[in-house]
C-alpha cells in the first residue's frame, strides 16, 4: 500500500557528523525506493530552518512530478522531514489529497498508511470544535486530532500523539512531525514501520528497502508501539506510555540488490536473479551425507532420504506436533496462495499429510474449525499482508501452531510464528509482480515438506513412489536448469510478438502444474492487462472451452508424466476448435499442430513447478513490454497489501 519515509538528524543544517544531505533529499531518495508501494501521488513536509516553519509540497501522479517540483525550490535547509507515496483509499489521487496532511496551525504534519475506520465520527467531532478540514481523506483527521490534544494541554508532542493513537480505530502506521519541538513520532497499529537509529539520526520507512543503504541493523515497531525522536534521542513506548527496549533485527540484504543494474525493469532483473536466489534458498539447508551408515541412518538408504539431510533448525515442529495435527493448513494471498497450492501437492506427495490451502481474506471471515492441534503455515513475501496475518491471528487465538515462509526478516508474520520461520532469502523484490519470491517460496516449501517427513517418519509409506528420485542432485541442479531457461529469453520474446495483441488467454495445467497455470495467468493479467484465466486442464470441457476460437491462445503446461496423454487429449480438443496452442514442455510431445513450443529441462515432478514458472514470467514480461505498460508498477496494484 502507501509508502512512508521520515528522517531527522544532523542533516545539512546540523552538526558536521552524520548524513550531510538535506532531509528532503533523504526523504525523496527513500520515496524512490518505495515507489512500488503506491504511485498515484506523493508529497514531502520538511522543517525549514530559515523560517522555523513546516513546508509541504504535494503532487498527484508519479514521483517524478514531486521531484520536479522540489527541484524548483532547492536548496532546502532542513534536518527533519517526512514523505509519502500514496495508493488512494479515501479521496481521489489529487494534489490536495496527497500526504502529508497538516493541522489548522500548520505546526503538525502527518503521513499515514492504512485506513482509519472511525474517521467520520472523529472528523465531525473535530469540526464541531472548530477544526477546518481541507480534504475528504481519512488521514487528515490524525493531524487535527493531535492538534486538539495539544490544545487540551498535552505536555509534549509525544503525549498528544499517544492520546490521539488511542482514539483511532482501523489499521494505521503514521509519522507525525512537530515544528515547535522539531520532533517526529512514529506510530504502528497494523501496517509496518521500520527504523534505523544511529549517530543521533533516525530514518523511518514502511519497509526495509530504503533503509539498507544506511544500516543493516533495523528496529521494527510492533503493533501498539510509538517511537519518539527529539534532540537526537529515541524513546520507545507502548500506547499506554510504558517504556520499551529496542530490539534490533539484522538484515542480510545487499543494498545493490535494490537497483536495476542494467535491466530495463526490476521485474526483468528479478526474473534473471532466480538461479542465484534458488541457490540461496536451499544452500546450507540441504547437506550431503554418506550412505555407508557413518553419517546417514542406514535404514534411510532405500528411502527418499538417501544421501542427504535437511537442516531447517528454525523449524520447531516435533513428531508429536505432526502426529497430533494430522493435517496442515496453509494461508496466503495472490501468488503466495498459488505457491501454497504447489506446496500442498508437494507435502501430500512426500509426507502423506492432508493439506488445506485457504485465502487469507476468505479464511478470516469463514467458520473454519480450527483446533489447537492444527499446524498453520503462512506464506507471504512481505510478511505484512493484512489478510494473511489476520488469518494467522485467528489460528493463534485458537492456540494452533504457526510456521511461516517469508522474505522479509522481522516482518509481522515472523512475530506470530511460534513454530518457526523459513526465510526465502530472495533479497528485496521491487517489481510489484512476484517472481523470485514465488519460486523461492516453493523451494522453501519443498525443504519444509522433506523436513516434516524426516521428523515424522522417514520409513513410512508416504513418499515411497519418490524413492527413485535423488532429491539432493535434483535440488542442487535446479539453479543450472533455471539458468538454461533464461537463455530462452529471445525465443520467448518472439512468441510474445505473435500474441501481444490478443485480448484473452487461457492457461491450462494438471496436477502439480495446475497452480502454475494460475500463476502464469495472474502474471499476464497483472502486468499486461490482458484477460487471462488459469484452469485445471481437465476442467476445460466443463465450461471454459466455450471461449475457445481462433482468437483464444491456450497455453498448456505439458509434462512427460502419466498425465501427459490426458493433457494431449485436451490439446486436441482446443485444436479442433481452432484455438492456438502454446506449450511449455519438458519433452518433445508427439503431437502436431502446436503453434509454439517452449522446451524446458526436465526435473523431478515436485521441483518442476519452479522451472515451469520461469518461461511464463518471461512471456508475460515481453508481452507487457511490447504493449508498453508500466511493468514494475502496474496500474491499481500495490506491492504490499497492508489493508483489507
Ligand atoms: C502477484 C503478487 C500478489 C502477492 C500478494 C501477496 O504477483 O505479487 O498477488 O503475491 O499480494 O503478497 P505477500 O506475498 O507479500 O503476502
What is the topological layout?
Layout: E1 3-8, H1 23-33, E2 41-48, E3 53-60, H2 63-73, E4 80-86, E5 101-102, E6 108-116, H3 119-128, H4 140-151, H5 157-167, E7 170-178, E8 183-189, E9 194-198, E10 201-205, E11 217-220, E12 225-230, E13 233-238, E14 248-250, H6 266-272, H7 274-282, E15 286-288, E16 308-310, H8 319-325, E17 328-332, H9 334-351, E18 355-359, H10 360-363, E19 375-380, H11 386-397, E20 401-406, H12 412-416, E21 421-423, H13 436-456, H14 471-486, H15 489-499, E22 504-509, H16 514-528, E23 531-536, E24 553-558, H17 564-576, E25 580-585, E26 596-599, H18 608-627
Parallel strand pairs: 17-18, 17-19, 19-20, 20-21, 22-23, 22-24, 24-25, 25-26
Antiparallel strand pairs: 1-4, 1-10, 2-3, 2-4, 5-6, 6-7, 7-8, 8-12, 9-10, 9-11, 11-14, 12-13, 15-16
Helix pairs in contact: 3-4, 4-5, 7-13, 7-14, 9-13, 9-16, 13-18, 14-18, 15-18, 16-18
Bound molecules: fructose -6-phosphate.
Describe it for me?
This protein is an alpha/beta fold. It has three domains: 3-251, 4-Layer Sandwich (Glutamine Phosphoribosylpyrophosphate, subunit 1, domain 1); 268-484, Rossmann fold; 485-627, 3-Layer(aba) Sandwich (Rossmann fold), CATH 3.40.50.10490. 33% of the residues lie in helices and 22% in strands. It has 18 helices and 26 strands. Strands 3-2-4-1-10-9-11-14 form an eight-stranded antiparallel sheet, covered by helices on one side. Strands 5-6-7-8-12-13 form a six-stranded antiparallel sheet. Strands 18-17-19-20-21 form a five-stranded parallel sheet, sandwiched between helices. Helix 9 (334-351) runs antiparallel to helix 16 (514-528). The longest helix has 21 residues, at 436-456. It is globular. It starts with a strand and ends in a 17-residue tail after the last helix. Fructose -6-phosphate (F6R) is lined by residues 333-336, 380-382, 385, 388, 433-434, 522, 526, 640-641.
